[in-house]
Amino acid sequence: MSDQPHIQSFQPPHRTLMGPGPSDVHQRVLDAMARPTVGHLDPAFVGMMEELKTLLRYAFQTNNDLTFPVSGPGSVGMETCFVNLVEPGDKVIVCRNGVFGGRMVENVKRCGGVPVLVDDAWGSAVDSGKLEDALKANPDAKVVAFVHAETSTGAQSDAKTLVEIAHRHGCLTIVDAVTSLGGTPLKVDEWEVDAIYSGSQKCLSCTPGLSPVSFSARAIETVKNRKTVVQSWFMDLNLVLGYWSAATKRTYHHTAPINALYGLHESLVMLQNEGLENSWNRHAHNYQALKAGFDAMGLKFFVQEDQRLPQLNAICIPEGIDDAEVRRRLLQDYNLEIGVGLGDMAGKIWRLGLMGYSSRPENVLLALRALDEVLTDMKAPIQSGRAVVAANGFYDAK
């Protein structure tokens, strides 16, 4: 067509990503993704897939054979867990304390299951006592599902205790670890989690589009003994097992996102080199610096401290301040992205991520300085000029 516009190559701006994800991606990961593409059944690629499984077992702290990245974002990892473990008529206890607990409910319904809700206020951890009561009232429940790190609020629940309660009542567990894997203590084998999923773009600092999952032997046995066919062909573990099984027996299932898997492999090598506990400590350390700055500025956290996720911080927006205008100015003047509140929290909180490669002192100081300057200019009721000093004081003392 004569009026077809001439579109040139896309050149994205350089941003500092401090929202709820994606996080900043290290140049090593971007370089890895630019390496030559090979076939998804190429012996060299198959060898890398075996390494990926080993690296993910380390990240999850598990020896589960079926530990691999699903080709799709965290939401596909979520759906993979539910469509394989939930059959029509199955009763599932879902602990809901934010947006992503709500998505679990939707998954149960679409699988034909019967959801039983354990609701807690947004910004609160899941109440283990409520879960215990729900299980006593529903002795025929098959699965307990909950979010370890609720991305919509920054609340962290006691996964170990919740899994113990579920198992005591004979239930399998499905755990959302999208925002916790690599950033906060997560021990799949020690806690005896049955099915767990995460995302590549949070604390692993890869690009979006892959969802690491892990299934216990008990979960796999449940899948193999289903009475009905898994409703999703693509996510049916009985079929996927053939592709992610031993390298010598691998069969075609789908064309894997080859270069994206290069990137995840590199990000997991970096996690291995840093050391998992060192990564957990780094995220906690930078959170403490951010907290010192916000406390000095007078901004309030939405989640109480003992239930707070270090790598995802929900901050209450000061009275009379235009949420969208603050975020616009941060993006325009500082190339800094922070996150909006979701659902009932829209316009009430900002979500600041300190995930993966984004969890660095220079990012903490940039966020504090930028928010201080923008809010001061907008006449917000804050203590101007104190945040960066407080954060630097924390770093200097440590």
Would you write up a description of this structure?
The chain is of the alpha/beta class and 398 residues long. The chain has two domains: 27-272, Type I PLP-dependent aspartate aminotransferase-like (Major domain) (Aspartate Aminotransferase, domain 2), CATH 3.40.640; 276-397, Aspartate Aminotransferase, domain 1. It contains 14 helices and 14 strands. It has a seven-stranded mixed beta sheet, sandwiched between helices. It has a three-stranded antiparallel beta sheet with strand order 11-14-13, with helices on one face. A hairpin with an 8-residue loop joins strand 13 and strand 14. Helix 11 (276-297) packs antiparallel against helix 14 (387-397), helix 12 packs across helix 13 and helix 13 (361-377) runs antiparallel to helix 14 (387-397). 49% of the residues are buried. The model has no long low-confidence stretch (mean pLDDT 95). Pfam families: Aminotran_5 (PF00266).
Radius of gyration: 22 Å
Poorly predicted sequence stretches spanning 5 or more consecutive residues: none
The CATH class of the largest domain turns out to be Alpha Beta
Level of helix content? Answer: 40-55%
**Biggest sheet features:** 7 strands, mixed
Cofactor: pyridoxal 5'-phosphate
Protein name: Alanine-glyoxylate aminotransferase
Organism: Sulfurirhabdus autotrophica
GO molecular function, one term: alanine-glyoxylate transaminase activity
